[in-house]
TrEMBL record:
It comes from Lactobacillus johnsonii ATCC 33200. This is UbiC transcription regulator-associated domain protein. The keyword Repressor applies. Gene3D superfamilies: Chorismate lyase-like (3.40.1410.10), Winged helix-like DNA-binding domain superfamily/Winged helix DNA-binding domain (1.10.10.10). The keyword Magnesium does not apply. One of its GO terms (biological process) is negative regulation of DNA-templated transcription. It comes from the Bacteria. Keywords: DNA-binding, Repressor, Transcription, Transcription regulation. GO terms for molecular function: DNA binding; DNA-binding transcription factor activity. InterPro entries: Bact_HTH_transcr_reg, Chorismate_lyase_/UTRA_dom_sf, Tscrpt_reg_HTH_GntR, UTRA, WH-like_DNA-bd_sf, WH_DNA-bd_sf.
Amino acid sequence: MAAEAKYLKVARILQKRIEDGVYKPQTPLPDQKTLAEELHVSRLTVKKALDGLQRKGLVYKESGLGTFVLGPIPIQDKFDSPANVFSGLANLLGSNEVTSDIIEFNVEFPNEDVQHYLKLKSSDPVYNIRRLRRLEGKPLILEHTFMPVNLVPDLNEDILHNSIYNYLHHNLKLKFGVAYRKIKATKADDWDQQYLQAKKDDPILELEQIVLLNNGQPVEYSTSRNRYNERNYVVLETTSF
C-alpha cells in the first residue's frame, strides 16, 4: 500500500491536537507559515490538511482572519461521516481499524445507467467492485463501485483489500474535483441481509455518488449501504464557504 500523503499526516496531527484540547474551540489556529515551519512541510501541504479538517467540520476559515477551531461536532458519533469528505473510509476511521472483504471484482462492459453516470461508451470496460467494509471486524458498509478501466489501470485485489482512494491519489496522481451525492432511506435487500446482517425490510441508509476528477471526467459511480443504526452522515454549513 502506498505511503500516507503528507497532508493526511499533518491533518491527523492537527486533529489530535484539537481532540486533546491543545487547540481549543473558538480560538484561532497558528497561521499556515508557522505550522509549515513547525511540521517541516510546505504551506500547500498545511492548506490541504486544513481543507480536509474543514470538510470534517473541525475548523472553519474566516477570510482575512485565519482558521478557527470548531472542535468535535456535537451531533456526530464516532462512526458517522461528514457528507462531503473525499478521503475514503480507511483514512476517515483509520486504516488499522478498517478491513475490506472482496465480494465481487470483475471487468465488464457498462450497462446504460453506468454509461450515463460515467460518460462512457458501451464498449468502454469498467471495474465492477463489491466490497464489505468492516470496522474492527464488524460489518459496517456494503459498497458497490464502478470505475473506468482506462482511468484506473492495474487495479488488483491487494489494492481492494486496502484503500482504492490512496491508490488513485498517491499512485495514479489523480485529483478529485466534484462529487454528486444523494442520501436516501431504503429497505434491506438480499445483499444487505447476507453481508450486513440486516433483517428483511430493515431500514438501510444508502449513499449514491458520482465522483469527478478535477478535469471533469467521472472516475467513480458507487453506492454505499449501511444499516439504519450503524452510521449516519453529517452536513456542516458555514457562511465562510
